[in-house]
Specification:
The protein is an alpha+beta fold. Helices cover about 30% and strands about 25% of the residues. The strands form 4 sheets. The protein has an 8-stranded antiparallel β-barrel. Strands 1-3-2 form a 3-stranded antiparallel β-sheet. The chain has a 3-stranded antiparallel β-sheet with strand order 4-6-5. Helix 7 packs across helix 9 and helix 14 packs antiparallel against helix 15. The chain is elongated.
């Protein structure tokens, strides 16, 4: 009877509003065919449950503009079904499920989704939809209480039937089309880490997310402009970066604070944010990477050891002999000197202050006298006719000074005397402006006045190694690739130079037994070695003396190293490091980063701190000396010149070193050593002369 009545009903016709309201209040279960105007029998077990009068009052009058036939008999039947307490089943809800849908993201899909959502909301009550969600055995989170009716229907469509969410599709469309801007407040440490080295990481972020990034200085923030979706992803990326930042407090070995200029340089070199912590002697390091954290610690320790170390090096000035009587220049004519800005052909050491560099030089005379010493006429260091004085004007003998340098190690087996070529530079200090051309001492004046100023003011002085033009490097095939470590103890003694005992030094050197893969890659870690030679360990004390020669293009640094050999078993920490380095260089363990040397180790009751971590290419050239030999039958002596192209593995800084070594301690060997220094420090025009 009911089926016949439904067939005769006007479901395909327009329904009047009053009956529609009662029909909705009783939550009639409409079949998919009936909702589309097709005839279909509705069985009694497909009827549904009960809706309260409060819900009836809140239901919208969707079909207010349509006309309904007399539905009294159907209404009575549904009321009787509702009184039995029957609930819809999965078979009932599956009858509304379409076999397919249009492509997500299109307008047609949106209309299909909304029509299906409206049909479910009209056909079922809120409690029925929640019960159906439980029948689908979905996560209880989707069928939790206190959700809206439309949310239950959306969960059935999306979670039960696998339709893409219309809200998410709309959000994606907005993310792809809407351009917005957002500011990210930053602390200095967060901004430094996000920027990366020279801003490379921030540039990569801008390219990756296709956004425009600018910096707001006050308050410190990043202003980002781009698509909404890109900004969402970038926000998640920045939040993840912030969570990964770790900090560590590191105590410096010297218990002295590091100047702010060096702090910034350490941060740039290590890729970690470094700041002084507390009253002094500690730094706080922020980083996302443990290796960067360790690198920052080693650089901070080295900077603290370098700070103030220039006062521990003796300094002498060389005054050339006056002109001979046959010279056209009067013997009593004085020379003036001045402090000139200096531009190095190689990078300055990273531990040097950035306020500028200056060198003391002799000024040219307006009468046309050369501003440099004429070694061919005055003999230079070889003839020993010049004067060696300290800043107080006290004259001394260079040979005795070098041989009697207070190394404090009389029990050493060997002594190595070297002369490094370079420039002795003055730094105006931390307070000067970067790149300043204003010298700390202005004007031209006699040398005695310049020396008195040096003794009184004591500006920071740094010896910067340089390569003379005469000593051309050897061909690449004749170079040796070495890995060198230098460890030092902290200085001990009083503030007076005569009472200072030079620090103990451990020098370790290992040779790569295969040729490097490239001419410009001196680092051992950048080449593939077939094997590393057994390291050589030397321990002793080293003393330095800087020789200022303002009448020549270059200065000298003399060193005396009294040392003895020790076995690697006595230094197990370094032995273990070289074993790992050999494994990395020979077999390629797959690790991208090579092993790092230990920052400190203890030996014989003392703590040694890493000072130099170098990879270098070394070549040896022979320089002919045009000096009269002791034996008339012998040829002119030849001196070995060591040329080293150095890569600092901690600071990633390259430099060059030209060094002379004294092999014997005889008087003639010493004079030949000085003759070689004359030849390499002389002006280019004089160095090529056969008279030197």
């Amino acid at each position: 009877m009911v089926a016949a009545l439904l067939q005769r009903s006007a479901v395909r016709r327009s329904l009047f509003p009053k009956c529609c309201k009662k029909f909705l209040s009783q939550a009639v279960l409409v079949s998919p065919s009936a909702s589309t105007g097709q005839r279909r029998d509705i069985q009694p077990h497909n009827s549904v449950a009960h809706v309260t009068r409060q819900q009836e009052a809140t239901e919208p009058d969707i079909f207010a503009n349509k006309s309904f036939p007399d539905f009294t008999k159907v209404e009575n039947y549904l009321t009787s079904i509702r009184s039995t307490g029957l609930q819809p089943t999965l078979e009932d809800i599956e009858g509304f499920r379409p076999s397919r849908h249009s492509r997500p993201g299109t307008k047609k899909y949106a209309n299909e989704y909304r029509d299906l959502l409206g049909t479910l909301c009209r056909a079922f009550s809120k409690d029925q939809l929640r019960n159906l969600l439980e029948l689908y055995k979905l996560d209880p989170w989707w069928s939790r209480a206190k959700r809206k009716k439309v949310e239950y229907a959306e969960s059935i469509i999306e979670q039960g039937w696998g339709w893409p969410s219309l809200k998410e599709l709309e959000e994606r469309r907005v993310d792809r089309t809407e351009v917005i801007s957002k500011s990210f407040p930053m602390s200095p440490r967060e901004l430094f880490i996000i920027l990366g080295k020279d801003g490379a990481d921030l540039l990569q972020l801008s390219i990756q997310y296709n956004v425009h990034i600018s910096l707001i200085p006050d308050p410190l923030a990043l202003h980002v402009e781009g698509l909404r979706g890109a900004l969402k992803q970038m926000t998640e990326h920045i939040d993840a970066l912030r969570k990964d930042i770790e900090d560590e407090i590191f105590e410096l070995p010297t218990r002295r604070s590091i100047p702010q200029a060096l702090i910034q340089r350490i941060s740039r070199l290590a890729g970690a944010y470094v700041e002084n912590y507390g009253d002094g002697g500690k730094v706080r390091i922020f980083s996302r990477d443990d290796s960067m954290m360790r690198t920052a610690q080693r650089l901070a320790a080295r900077a603290s050891m370098e700070e103030g170390s220039d006062g521990l090096v003796s300094m002498l000035y060389y005054e050339p002999p006056g002109p001979k009587s046959s010279s056209l220049v009067p013997a009593d004519m004085p020379h003036d000197y001045s402090v000139y800005p200096f531009l190095s052909p190689t990078p300055f050491p990273w531990t040097m202050h950035t306020g500028g560099a200056f060198r003391i030089r002799r000024t040219a005379d307006w009468l046309g006298v050369n501003s440099q010493e004429d070694i061919t006429k005055r003999g230079g260091l070889f003839n020993n006719e010049g004067r060696f004085t300290d800043f107080s004007g006290k004259e001394t003998d260079l040979h005795k000074v070098v041989l009697n340098l207070p190394t404090g190690d009389d029990s050493s087996d060997c002594r190595l005397i070297t002369a490094s070529l370079g420039h002795l530079l003055l730094s105006p200090g931390e307070d000067s402006r970067p790149g300043s051309l204003l010298p700390p001492l202005r004007g031209r004046m006699p040398l005695r006045k310049v020396l008195r100023w040096l003794e009184t003011v004591r500006p920071p002085t740094v010896f910067v190694p340089s390569f003379p033009p005469l000593a051309l490097p050897a061909p690449h095939a004749r170079r040796r690739t070495l890995h060198r470590l230098v460890y030092k103890t902290l200085h001990s003694g009083s503030a007076h130079m005569s009472d200072i005992s030079p620090s103990l030094v451990v020098k370790v050197e290992a040779e790569c037994l295969s040729e490097s893969s490239g001419e410009n890659s001196p680092a051992v870690s950048a080449v593939s070695c077939s094997d590393l030679s057994p390291p050589q360990y030397r321990i002793g004390r080293e003393a330095l003396v800087n020789l200022m020669i303002p009448d020549r293009p270059m200065d000298l640094q003399l060193s005396v190293f009294d040392y003895g050999l020790i076995s690697e078993e006595q230094l197990p920490v370094l032995k273990d490091y070289f074993v790992k380095l050999r494994d990395y260089a020979t077999s390629g363990t797959g690790d991208y980063n090579p092993p790092c040397p230990p920052a400190t180790f203890d030996f014989d009751g003392r703590t040694y701190h890493l000072h130099d971590n170098w990879s270098l290419q070394q070549s040896v050239n022979l320089v002919d000396l045009n000096v009269s030999p002791t034996d008339e039958s012998s040829a002119h002596p030849r001196v070995r010149v060591f040329h080293e192209k150095i890569l600092d593995l901690e600071a990633s800084q390259q430099s060059e070193l030209c060094q002379l070594r004294l092999d014997q301690s005889s008087d003639w060997s010493w004079r030949s050593f000085l003759a070689a220094c004359d030849k390499l420090t002389a002006p280019w025009s004089q160095a090529r002369s056969k008279e030197i």
